[in-house]
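Feature request, filed as a ticket because there's no other form

It would be nice if the structure record came with a short human-readable summary line next to the C-alpha cells. Right now we just get the raw output. Example of a typical job, pasted below so the devs can see what we mean:
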Amino acid sequence: MSARPELGPLQPGARVGLVAPSGPPKPEQLEKAMDVLRSWDMEPVPGKHILDRHPRAGYLAGTDADRAADLQDAWCDDSLDAVLCVRGGYGAVRLLDLLDVPALAAARPKPLVGSSDITALHVFWAEELGLATWFTPMIATGAFLDDPVAADGVRRALLEPYAGRAFTSAAAEPLVPGTAHGVLTGGNLALLAMLNGARNRKPVDNTGRIGLLEDVTEEPYRIDGMLQTLLRAGWFDGLTGVALGSWSECGDLADVRSLCEELLAPLGIPLVWELGFGHGPAAHSIPLGVPATLTAGSEPQLVLD
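Raw output as currently delivered:
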C-alpha cells in the first residue's frame, strides 16, 4: 500500500497548528498539551481564536466564523505540517457550510487529528477532499494528558509510519465471527447521525468499507435511535464489517452490547465489540480512510494494510 501523505509521519521540528472547532479548551490543559508537543520536537502554533468563547453559548470556542477561519487558515498554511483539533464537545457541524472547499482542496495535504465531535470534520474531509484523517484522543483533555498510553498512541500516529499497525483491547469480543477487508470509515455515532440528511451532501456509499462506531454519555435508548437512523438511511449498506469502540458513561454496558448485537448482527458481517478506540482509557489512535483487515475471532483485532 502506498503511504498517504496526509497522515504523515511528521519530521523533527514540524510546526503543527492547534485549533478548537468545537468546545473551548481549558487554558492550563492547552498549555500542558503544547508542552507535550514540544517534548516530541514539534512547534505548536495555536490558532488566533483558540481560547475564545462564543458570546451566547459557552460550549463553543468562539463564533462559528472565527472557529471556521482558524481551521481554514491552519489547513491552508503551507508552513504548518499538521492540524490538531484540541478538544471535542460540540460545534464542528456548525462550521461545515462556512468552509471554502476549493481553497481547502488546493492546500497541501497534512494530518488532520481529533475525534468525538471532530467526526464531522473527518466525514467532510473524506467526502469533499478525498483525504484520510486521524481519529485520536483530544490533546487538550484528560483523555490525553492523564493517559500515557493514549498519549503515546497520538505520538506514534504523528511520528511513525502507520502501515501494519494492529489494534485490539482486553475487552474485545467477536459478536459475529469472520474476517473483513475494507477502507475504514465512521467515528462518533452521534455525529454520524447528526450529519445524516444534510441538504447538499452526496449520498453515502460505504460499499467495501469497515465501519467504526463509538460514543460517550449517551443512554441506550439514544444509541438505539441513532443506530436506527443510520440503518434506515443505508449507512451500513455495503459495509464488510463493523468494529465497535468504547461506550463510556452510556449506562449499563451489557445493555449497550445487547442492543448493538440485536441491531447489527443481522447484517451478517463480522462484528467486534470494544476494540479500544473512542472515549475509554488507553484509547487507540486510528486512521480513517485507509484499508485494513478486521478479524472477529478468538483474538479480535484490526490491522492496517
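Something like this underneath would help us a lot:
The chain has a mean pLDDT of 97.
The first helix runs from residue 27 to 39.
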